[in-house]
Amino acid sequence: MVRKILILLTWAVLSGLSACAAPAAAPLTIELEVTDPPAATRRVDVPLGAEVTLRITVPSEDRAHVHGYEIEQDLVAGVPTEIVFDATMAGTYEVESHVTDAIWLDLVVK
Q1: pLDDT on residue 6
Q2: Cis omega (within 30 of 0) on the bond before 23?
Q3: pLDDT at position 24, please?
Q4: What's the CA gap between 7 and 95, in Å, rounded?
């Protein structure tokens, strides 16, 4: 009898905890239109766990790098290019050009 009560109590506690779990973060799309010369670095807050889509358009061929997540992507002039990743690590991460070394974005994941 005691065993059944312990099992029921354990189940009740675990069920309650799962109901309290934080909701999944909504997807986030960040539009970035790079200029020549580049604008000042833009800071963007990103919810931890969100699926992030960076949609980047550049005036000339370039290569984007998302630091920390170690994502690199070639960019074609005038063509919006999407980089998609899950923001699973808290912190501040630069998105930069590997051609001009300009820092386009600071992504603050929290």
Answers
A1: 46
A2: no
A3: 84
A4: 50
Give the span between the Cα atoms of 31 and 83, in whole angstroms.
11
Q: Which CATH superfamily is domain 24-109 in?
A: Cupredoxins -  blue copper proteins (2.60.40.420)
Report the C-alpha gap between 70 and 93 in whole angstroms.
10
The position carrying tokens 């919006």 is: 80
Determine the Cα–Cα distance for residues 11 and 15; give it in Å rounded to an integer: 6
Q: What share of the chain is helix, strand, coil (3-state, %, to 5)?
A: 15, 45, 40
**Highest-scoring range by mean pLDDT, 12-16, 21-25, 103-107:** 103-107
Domain ranges of the chain: 24-109
